[in-house]
Design a protein that fits this description.
single chain, about 260 residues, alpha/beta, 7-stranded parallel beta sheet
Length: about 260
C-alpha cells in the first residue's frame, strides 16, 4: 500500500511502539490519528509530528470502554490503516490476579481490537480497501509461566487475526500481525514485575528491540502487505523450534521461568 495521503489510526499512541509508529506513518505522508488515554501525552506526540512537517490529530479515549470506542468511530471515519497496538496488563499467576484486573487485561488489547475493528470493517469492505495491523506479544506463540491473564488475551488477539484473515480474503481489505520480541519501551516500567518473569532462556537467546524498530516493522507490514512478521530473527527461530519440538521448548520455558 502506498501511504502518502492515506489516513492511519494508531491506538496506544502516546508512547513507545504506538508513538513511534504514528511518527513513521506521518513521515511517509499519511495523516495520523493518535489514540490513547492521556490527552497530555498525545498532544506532545502530535506536536512532535507537526514539528517534522507531518500531519496528525489527537483523540483521547479509554479503549477499555466500549462506549468510548463507539464515540471514537463516530469521530474518526474509517481509516485506510488501523493499527491495534494498545495493550495493558501485569504478568501474574491467575490466582494472584483480581477479577477486575483480568477484565481489564481482556478489554485491552483483545476487546479493544475486536470492537474497534468491527466499527470500521463494514466501511472498509464497502470501499474494497484498507489494512489492519494487530501488534502482538511473543507469549501468543510461546507460553511462559506466571502470566495467565495477559497471555490469554494475547492468544485471543492472535485468534482474531487468523479468523479475520480468512473472512477478508478477496475483499480488498488485508490484515497483518506484527510480533516483536522484548521491547525497550515504557511497558516494563508501567508493569513492574513483568520483566523478571521472562524465562532466562529467552533473555539469553532473543535480543531486545527498540520502539523504532517496531515502528519500521509495522509500516513495512502495511507497505508490503505482509501477513505476519515476527522479529528479531532469534524470536522467529525460537517460535519455529516451539512448533517442531513443543515438549522441549515448553520444558525450557518452564524450567527457566517463574516458579512459586
Amino acid at each position: 500500500m502506498q501511504l502518502s495521503g492515506k489516513k492511519v489510526l494508531v491506538t496506544g499512541a502516546s508512547q513507545g511502539i504506538g508513538a513511534e509508529a504514528a511518527f513513521r506513518f506521518a513521515a511517509h505522508g499519511a495523516h495520523v490519528h493518535l489514540v490513547a488515554r492521556s490527552a497530555e501525552l498525545l498532544d506532545l506526540q502530535v506536536k512532535r509530528i507537526k514539528e517534522f512537517g507531518g500531519s496528525a490529530t489527537a483523540h483521547p479515549a479509554d479503549l477499555a470502554d466500549a462506549e468510548q470506542i463507539r464515540a471514537l468511530a463516530e469521530e474518526v471515519p474509517a481509516p485506510d490503516v488501523l493499527v491495534n497496538n494498545a495493550g495493558v496488563g501485569r504478568w501474574l499467576f491467575l490466582d494472584d490476579t483480581s477479577a477486575d484486573e483480568l477484565a481489564t487485561m481482556t478489554a485491552v488489547p483483545y476487546l479493544a481490537a475486536l470492537l474497534l475493528t468491527r466499527e470500521y470493517l463494514g466501511a472498509m469492505r464497502s470501499r474494497g480497501s484498507g489494512w489492519i495491523v494487530n501488534v502482538n506479544s511473543p507469549v501468543s506463540r510461546l507460553p511462559i509461566p506466571g502470566c495467565v491473564g495477559y497471555q490469554s488475551s494475547r492468544w485471543a488477539l492472535r485468534g482474531l487475526t487468523a479468523s479475520l484473515r480468512l473472512d477478508l480474503r478477496g475483499t480488498g481489505v488485508g490484515i497483518s500481525e506484527v510480533v516483536p520480541g522484548k521491547v525497550s519501551s515504557e511497558y516494563f516500567t508501567n508493569n513492574p514485575g513483568a520483566e523478571e518473569r521472562i524465562p532466562a532462556i529467552a533473555r539469553l537467546m532473543i535480543p531486545t528491540v527498540t520502539p523504532e524498530q517496531c515502528a519500521k516493522a509495522i509500516v513495512d507490514a502495511v507497505e508490503k502487505e505482509r501477513a505476519e512478521h515476527l522479529f528479531p530473527w532469534q524470536l522467529k527461530a525460537f517460535e519455529i523450534s516451539g512448533r517442531l519440538f513443543p515438549g522441549l521448548t515448553s520444558y525450557l520455558a518452564w524450567k527457566t521461568g517463574t516458579h512459586r
